Amino acid sequence: MPAYKYPLLIKQLLLAPSVRTPNKEIVYRDLVRFGYRTLFERINRLGSSLDKLGVKQGDTVAVVDYDSHRYLESYFAIPMLGAVLHTVNWRLPPEQMLYTMNHAEDKIVLVHSDFLPVLESFGDKLTTVEKFILLTDDNKKPDTKLNIEAEYEEMLRAGSSSYDFPDFDEDTRATLFYTTGTTGDPKGVYFTHRQIVLHTVGIALLGAGQNYPRFVTPDEVYMPLTPMFHVHAWGTPYLSTMSGMKQVYPGKYDIMLLIKLIKKEGVTYTHCVPTILGMLLLGVEMEGVDLSGLKMIIGGAALPGGLANQALKAGIKFYCGYGLSETCPLLTATDLKDDMLDWDTDRKVSVLKGTGLPAPLVQVEIMDESGRKLPHDGKSMGEIVARAPWLTEGYFKKPKESEQLWRYGWLHTGDIGYIDEGGYLYLTDRVKDVIKTGGEWISSLKLEDLISEHKAVAEAGVIGMPDERWGERPMAVVVPKPEYKDKISPEDIKEFLQKFVEDGTILKWAIPDRIEFVAQLPHTVVGKVDKKVLRKQYISK
User: Fold this and answer.
1) Region label for 233, one of left (φ > 0), alpha (ψ between -120 and 50) or beta (otherwise)
2) Which of 109, 263, 400, 452 could in theory staple to 304 by disulfide, Cβ–Cβ 3.0 to 4.6 A?
3) pLDDT at 383 over 90
4) d(Cα 510, Cα 498) in Å, to the nearest integer?
5) Fold for the domain defined by 433-538
6) Residue-wise pLDDT tens digits, 252-299
7) Mean pLDDT lowest among 144-148, 212-216, 434-438
8) Which residue blocks in 468-530 are alpha helix, DSSP H?
9) Taking 60 as the threshold, does the pLDDT of residue 181 lie above it?
């Protein structure tokens, strides 16, 4: 009899916790609490219920929900059937939500009652959806024009507590979600079972070499602060489940509730974009909650130096990760090498808030426009390209864009950066955001970081403004802290930046000609400063 060909399937991520930590808890807000044994049973019930509804291998099942225990169950049960999990970005405009659901060919939609109105607004235009499953927090059944087949909990009660999920090819598509492109329709990014399993193991291996802070262990209490529709919440629910951690899901984000859950449930490990970190720190300041010891992965956007220092003062142990929707997302993470451990705090932070070293199994290079790899000399700048076993093979139903993504056999990130002699990657800007002035490249991210270190600045966005003489000149849009709203001027910012010119951090022509103060900056759905909106607001003026 031939040896068993062990396919790398998502269901195998459940093997270890089923025997090692069956009594660890899954918590949803202050509403639901159960152990891993119940989680495994509920995954079986969801799988068997979807099977009864006619879900077959290759069908697409959409989820429109907040971060919840239901979402965690869907992360497993739907792909374990051989179906495709479409994590719908409910922050998209309705017309783009409609586009993604039709483009993905969703068959069944699991939808939280809060999102019924937006789905009702285009429900008659959904071309492939056959049935809706209602998700509620209060078991109430609202009036709706949609064809609700069942309520989630009722459906699970009618399902089987033991369901034999099949084996199939590990290269079967498991998940699908859509990027928020700056132009045109969102692009679908997909991942296979093999890719997700290897990404999960890759994150776990990342912890083996961390010096500061130490990475997570099964004893952590995990709570996501990144939407579960966005790159599998950075893959961390899969890691947390495989590791058997206690998991806390916050549902609809409310800063005061998040702080309450962190305190009540003893959360020790989370991840978020810098914007959420800033909101969390503001709430902590108001509530006087001690967050010392909380481990946090920062990603999605560059961590400003000022915010990094605030996090340190609050006792948060952070490091930064870098990746894209197309990379599942892990590519690099910040870490300190042994010879850095005795550095002073400021010098350590300069590394920890950066882009970091390649994760296990990841190759990262810098490439010029002709496809030539550039030296790791700390000076040669080009586009960041990557190879890893978990990178998407392309964009769903978009062969030309997929070919462009993988030109020269490397996944092209669209980011500009360089690699130093020690192997550390430094992200300097997006290809589309770098400011080209008089033949020099100015990093908008670097300027934002430096401006954020001013004591009066809460946040900054930098864009390139057309200039007849120099091609482009930097402009800064700054959000002052409330207590400094009427006490800061453009000259204060320019004078502050001058010291970075004097110490050689930036060149003199990097100081923005124009600085505007605003109450808030526009952000993308994943928390980045939306420079597309800023350009529309200011370039036409």
Assistant:
1) left
2) 452
3) yes
4) 10
5) GMP Synthetase; Chain A, domain 3 (3.30.300)
6) 999 889 999 999 999 999 999 888 898 888 877 777 778 888 999 999
7) 212-216
8) 490-502
9) no
CB 476: neighbour CB atoms within 10 A? 25
DSSP string, 353-381: TS-BEEPTT-EEEEE-TTSPBPP-SS---
Beta bridge partners of 231: none
SS3 call for 169:
coil
- C-beta of residue 304 within 8 angstroms of C-beta of residue 452: yes
Asked whether 29 and 261 are in contact (CB, 8 A), the reply is: yes
Point out the residues that are catalytic.
179, 326, 436, 441
Structure tokens at 158: 């009618």
pLDDT at 162: 95
End-to-end CA distance of the chain: 75
Please, are residues 204 and 330 in contact by the beta-carbon 8 Å criterion?
no
And the tokens for 265? 């449930």
* Torsion over CA: 237, 238, 239, 242 (sign): positive
Residue 501, Cβ neighbours under 10 Å: how many? 15
If one compares 524 and 496, the residue with the highest pLDDT of the two is 496
Q: Do domains 33-168 and 433-538 have the same CATH topology?
A: no
Q: How far apart are CA 444 and CA 442, in angstroms?
A: 6
Nearest CA to 527 out of 216, 271, 177, 269 is that of 271
pLDDT score of 533 more than 70: yes
* Averaged pLDDT, 429-451: 82
Helix (H, G, I), strand (E, B) or coil at 269: strand
Question: Which candidate, 226, 227, 229, 228, places its Cα nearest to that of 97?
Answer: 229
Domain boundaries, the chain: 33-168, 433-538
Average model confidence (pLDDT) across the chain: 91
Predicted local confidence at residue 206, as pLDDT: 79
> Model-level pTM?
0.85
Q: How far apart are CA 223 and CA 237, in angstroms?
A: 9
Burial class (CB in 10 A: 0-12, 13-18, 19+), 484: middle
Contact 225, 298 (CB under 8 A): no
14 in Cβ contact with 43 (< 8 Å): yes
Structure confidence at residue 72 (pLDDT): 98
The domain defined by 33-168 folds into Rossmann fold (3.40.50)
